[in-house]
Amino acid sequence: METLIPKISTVFKTLLRADFTTQWRNRRAVILTLIVPVIILTTWKPFVARFGGPFVLSNSITIGLIAIGLMGYSTSIARDRDKGIFQRLRVAPISSWSIMTSRLLVQMTMILMVTTAIFIAGSSYDQVTLTAPGYIVTYFTAIVCGALYLSLGQMIVGRIQNPETVNSTVRLVYFVFIMGGMYGQFSTDTQFHNVVQWSPYGTVKTILAAGMEPQQWNKNASMALLATLGYTIVFTVLGIKWFKWTTK
Description:
Order of helices and strands: HHHHHHHHHHH
Largest sheet: none
Number of domains: 1
Domain ABC-2 type transporter transmembrane: 11-181
Number of strands: 0
Main location: membrane
Structural class: mainly alpha
Oligomer: single chain
Strand content: under 5%
Shape: globular
Subcellular location: Membrane
Pfam family, one: ABC2_membrane
Helix content: over 70%
Distance between the termini: 37 Å
GO molecular function, one term: ABC-type transporter activity
Radius of gyration: 19 Å
């Protein structure tokens, strides 16, 4: 009796549908990821007149991207690996790359949702609007910047096997990035300010702000883009090298 093997595309569509369904069932975490940057955006309204709309919007999106890459992606990967889900999926007629691609597509959708939520809140509450090219370029830069934090999350979950340790680690990194990034922008210490500016937080914030005003894109933004791509490549290589499909 001949065994029918489903097409790879069919298996991938099924896997992608399952990942989106799982994300929907975990919608409380999704809502929290959307609300936190929006709350920060609204509380930073007084800074709009002083530093400009792109400054406030870019910081809020950056915080949302960090939450997606660390609090969302890495913790879900660690949880599913610990439950043996990845081990069972690898038995299916689908490549390992397809399994991870499905997860990443879900997170890319989250990046677009967070960016859109910030745009809506910024326009309705802070009265900050961008030009059409500004919106388009920012969506592209958000994807690029989001990839940095997804790769960082991949590196953490690759290096650390225990899901509880992953959870505590990403929370610590999240706190350090948020507090250090926001404080560094207002610090009078030039050296600390420069360190933050060229950290993953600072380069992402610079790219996003420049993308909101494409006509203002300069050499500093280009250097920040190169630094962001460099961070992403390093984190990705290490994340792939260290990652194990099981905790055993």
